[in-house]
Specification:
single chain; 88 residues; mainly alpha; 434 Repressor (Amino-terminal Domain); TransReg_Diox_bact_type; Lambda_DNA-bd_dom_sf
């Protein structure tokens, strides 16, 4: 099963690391605690839309672009799972 909070966290971490930015840097710009951002990235916390928007802005993303990326990732994972189940 694919969890939304894990996919969101992976997408945020991927974007942050592609920008060669630290957790501390993004947390400061998003005005969230470093620990909280870390938990969101690891899929341990499900951030509100307001906090997700702040994190996205700190990364130069729109909330819509993040959600599009997450939707594609989840759809791909679900499709792959269906293919494996059908093959069995």
């Amino acid at each position: 099963m694919v969890l939304l909070r894990e996919s969101v966290g992976q997408a945020l971490r991927r974007t942050r690391t592609e920008q060669s930015r630290t957790l501390r840097d993004v947390a400061r710009d998003a005005r969230v605690s470093l620990g909280y951002l870390s938990e969101v990235e690891r899929g341990q916390k499900e951030a509100s839309s307001e906090l997700l928007n702040s994190i996205c802005e700190a990364l130069g993303l729109t909330l819509g672009s993040l959600m599009n990326e997450v939707t594609l990732e989840i759809t791909s994972a679900e499709t792959a799972k269906l293919v494996v189940v059908d093959a069995a």
